[in-house]
């Protein structure tokens, strides 16, 4: 790496929930700099989740959409991932533990990708659906996490290259 490391920007908490991770999620949803559109999508998804909680379609232990969001992110966040490493002319997929910030980045990306792939409804509805599926351990984003863990487990023999 050359030069100095880019400074980390402090994010302001979002306007509705006062949560920094919701702000970060809105920034991940945002396309072409249209933050107000991204906010409408995310808050629309949270409103759908709140309505599902009120209609008892989600476990009673959750009081609002923010708690559902936090638990869904925890269910999707990977603990270990594989990275390619070149050793003696051969490339090995070496399992590495995932850092804290990267866990959130991967979880956000997987949720948004899974919601994007679904067709026929608004992005807010697809996002709410994916978050509620992640809450119970189902959905494409949870499948992606399990695939990453399975890949890391299969390449456990190369863990000694991690140093």
Automatic annotation (TrEMBL):
Entry GO terms, CC: small ribosomal subunit
Small ribosomal subunit protein uS7 domain span: 2-156
Keyword Ribonucleoprotein: yes
GO molecular function: rRNA binding; structural constituent of ribosome; tRNA binding
InterPro entries, per database record: Ribosomal_uS7, Ribosomal_uS7_bac/org-type, Ribosomal_uS7_dom, Ribosomal_uS7_dom_sf
GO terms (BP aspect): translation
Keywords: Ribonucleoprotein, Ribosomal protein, RNA-binding, rRNA-binding, tRNA-binding
Pfam families named in the record: Ribosomal_S7
Gene3D superfamilies: Ribosomal protein S7 domain
Keyword match Ribonucleoprotein: yes
Annotated family: Belongs to the universal ribosomal protein uS7 family.
Complexes and interactors: Part of the 30S ribosomal subunit. Contacts proteins S9 and S11.
Function: One of the primary rRNA binding proteins, it binds directly to 16S rRNA where it nucleates assembly of the head domain of the 30S subunit. Is located at the subunit interface close to the decoding center, probably blocks exit of the E-site tRNA.
Name listed for the protein in its UniProt record: Small ribosomal subunit protein uS7
